[in-house]
Design a protein that fits this description.
alpha/beta; 10 helices; about 15% strand
Length: about 280
């Protein structure tokens, strides 16, 4: 394989040794390289958190925003230039907690962007309190008697809201995760990939070994177009399914509903008369 153009050689990393973010970063860069995406055409947007540092280590355009606000920025980037490959990525707390409302409406609108969620089932940047996906009973520095609430089920919510591409992966399996990310980035529409990755410091429950023992891959004959079957898989708890769980091709994009062309916004010419009209409407 040729040298990966997305590598940032020699840059100091801000993660703990053994963090699952390292593997996810490598898998993401390999997936983008194999898809032959131009660096100048890629924008990665993140919120706040350990997972949200990822774009800083990818040699491409990036925007690091506010906690839970990766999706609004990613949407704006895509609407301003449909020719860009836009990825919104952040942690489970950022995407499902603070950013949960944005995710719900991104599904309704169906932008052509990819959403990658680093799901380590804990808030890693703010020192280990429970996140929306933390397992029942897990003890943290804040939940000293154990988490009392059932974990948020992102896959079930995504399928229930008819998100057009829903997948789950695990960084313990680099090749499978890479292929899932490649499918998501290539998909026309909102593609969400929930990726299990351990926090080796603050989450002693959901380790590499735990994810290996408590997940399984969907069989080859699984029909990801069957929404009922996808929801059945989404609510399984004994073992959690990995793979493309639901896929609905052909759903109309929000960009098309708005009538946005592939001419980037910065190339549009607005006449003086049109500009005055816009100002009048704004006032």
């Amino acid at each position: 394989m040729t040298e990966n153009p997305f590598d940032t050689q020699g840059k100091k990393m801000g993660w703990c040794p053994g963090c699952g973010n390292y593997r996810l970063l490598d898998v993401l860069k390999d997936a983008l390289h194999e898809l032959d995406i131009e660096q100048r055409s890629l924008v990665i947007v993140s919120g706040i958190g350990q997972g949200a540092k990822t774009p800083q280590y990818v040699n491409a355009h990036m925007f690091n925003g506010l906690h839970g606000r990766a999706l609004p920025v990613a949407m704006g980037v895509k609407l301003s230039n449909r020719n860009l490959v836009v990825i919104a990525e952040s942690g489970d707390g950022c995407m499902y907690g603070e950013g949960g409302n944005h995710l719900l409406h991104a599904i309704r609108r169906n932008y052509d962007i990819t959403v990658i969620v680093h799901d380590n089932m804990v808030y890693g940047l703010t020192k280990g309190q429970a996140s929306p996906t933390s397992q029942l009973g897990m003890k943290t520095s804040l939940q000293v008697n154990g988490v009392m609430l059932e974990p948020f089920n992102p896959i079930a919510v995504l399928v229930a809201l008819d998100a057009p591409f829903v997948a789950r992966a695990s960084v313990g399996d680099s090749e499978q995760t890479k292929e899932i990310i490649k499918q998501a980035v290539s998909f026309k529409g909102l593609a969400v990939v929930d990726i299990f990755q351990p926090c080796v410091i603050f989450n002693k429950m959901n380790t590499y070994q735990w994810f290996k023992e408590n997940t399984y891959y969907l069989p080859d004959d699984y029909d990801s177009n069957d929404r009922t079957q996808a929801f059945e898989k989404a609510i399984e708890t004994e073992k959690l399914p990995l793979g493309v769980i639901y896929r609905r091709d052909g759903r109309e994009l929000y960009e098309d509903l708005l009538g946005i062309t592939h001419i980037p916004l910065y190339e549009h010419e607005v006449s003086g008369e049109a500009f005055e009209k816009m100002l009048a409407e704004y006032r």
